[in-house]
Design goal:
Shape: globular
Distance between the termini: 44 Å
Helix content: 25-40%
Strand content: 15-25%
Structural class: alpha+beta
Order of helices and strands: HEEEHHHH
Strand order of the largest sheet: 1-2-3
Number of strands: 3
Bound molecules: zinc ion
């Protein structure tokens, strides 16, 4: 099975570090097939990474702003997505600068 994540990172503004930071506090329950139930925020959200004809996340940040929201980032982290993992050093560097 070859699952391809059809998210166009560049069109969606890339991995936003503020959203990535918030995503680290969320919990993701893997439901199989790239589907996650993301909890720990103000509301629970459903993320679907692999279905192209379906909203990837049901939150307003993704649906209306068309950004890669913190819920999708939380799911991508749990999938070991390289684009998201390689953004972590930037987040850590920023945190160290702010400290
Ligand atoms: Zn979302």
């Amino acid at each position: 099975m070859t699952d391809v994540i059809l998210i166009d990172f560049d069109a969606a503004g890339g991995v936003d570090l503020d959203r990535l930071e918030r995503s680290l506090g969320l919990r993701g329950e893997r439901l199989g097939g790239g589907r996650y139930r993301v909890t720990g925020g103000a509301q629970d959200h459903w993320v679907d990474l692999y279905t192209a004809d379906h909203p990837r996340c049901d939150c307003g940040d993704h649906l209306w702003r068309e950004r890669i929201c913190k819920h999708i980032l939380a799911a991508l982290l749990r999938e070991g997505n390289e684009r998201v993992l390689t953004a972590l050093p930037s987040l850590i560097a920023r945190a160290n600068t702010a400290a």
